[in-house]
Amino acid sequence: MVRDIVKDVPPVDQIHELRSRLLEWFRNSARDYPWRRTNDPFRVLIAEIMLRRTKADQVVPVFSKLFDRYPDIGSIAEAEDEELEKILYPLGLKWRSPAFKLVAKEIKEKYDSQVPMNREELTKLSGVGEYVAGAVLSIAFGKPEWIVDSNIVRLFQRYFGMVTSKEGRRDKHVIETVKTYVKGVDPRSANLALVDFSALICTPRAPLHNMCSVKTVCSYWRDLKNNRKPPTVN
Questions:
Q1: 1 pLDDT above the threshold of 50
Q2: Would you give the DSSP letter of residue 90?
Q3: What is the per-residue pLDDT for 228?
């Protein structure tokens, strides 16, 4: 693997190597959450909105309580504001309560209660950006659609030696790398592997090298092993 700083999209074989290794790791290390046990696109959509700036373990009881009380799009669209706010209160960020009701209404009224199956229409929904749209398409529909967040950018910075801007998730070469990464068999698991590995192993301050299954082909690890100071990651 080339150790030079990557200022553009890495070679396809290197991206596929990362994909293969992460999928192998994921088979035994995947996190188990209720929104991963369903193919219901609306539940996946709501979970992904909940997960913004919130730890997954905090989301679990709120997600379960919400759908126990309001099992479908129509019931959330017609929910009483006060009761919805009580259920969602543990997540903080008051904007989320009306956002859930609004997105449910939009799907009910504009799409006959069917979650859109393409990125363009999904990103027109309230509270749905590129990440949430990609997550719904890959997790619920099994489509080879890309996702990228700050954790994934950090993994790419370390693994490939990739240079990014401070808003790396918006960088064209980062997005193109993720698009190449997700192509292939089982894009759902490929994306979830990327999410879990970047959150659990390639952590911000102290990556868990003793548990890392990709370190032998990782630019960051090679620098450490050869007593070179790795580039600073955002």
A1: no
A2: G
A3: 78
The DSSP secondary structure of 148-217, one letter per residue, reads --HHHHHHHHHHH-B---TTGGG-HHHHHHHHHHH-SS-HHHHHHHHHHHHHHTS-SSS--GGG-SSGGG
Q: Is the pLDDT of residue 6 over 60?
A: no
The answer to whether the CB of 46 falls within 8 A of the CB of 128 is no
| Residues 147, 38: Cα–Cα separation, whole Å | 19
Contacts of 50 (CB under 8 A, 6+ apart): 59, 62, 63, 91, 96
In which residue are the tokens 């799009």 written?
A: 73
> In the chain, what are the domains?
12-29+145-225 (1.10.1670.10), 40-140 (1.10.340.30)
Q: Is residue 3 helix, strand or coil?
A: coil
CA distance 167 to 201: 22
pLDDT per residue as tens digits for the range 19-77: 999 999 999 999 999 999 999 999 999 999 999 889 999 999 999 999 999 999 999 99
For the chain, what's the residue count? 234
Rounded to a whole number, what is the distance in angstroms from the first to the last CA of the chain?
Answer: 23
In the annotation, is 82 catalytic? no
**Which of these is catalytic: 17, 48, 78, 167?**
48
Helix (H) or strand (E) holding 6: none
The pTM assigned to this predicted structure is 0.91
For the cut 80, the answer to whether the pLDDT of residue 117 exceeds it is: yes
Q: Which stretch of DSSP H or E encloses residue 227?
A: none
CB 150 within 8 A of CB 170: no
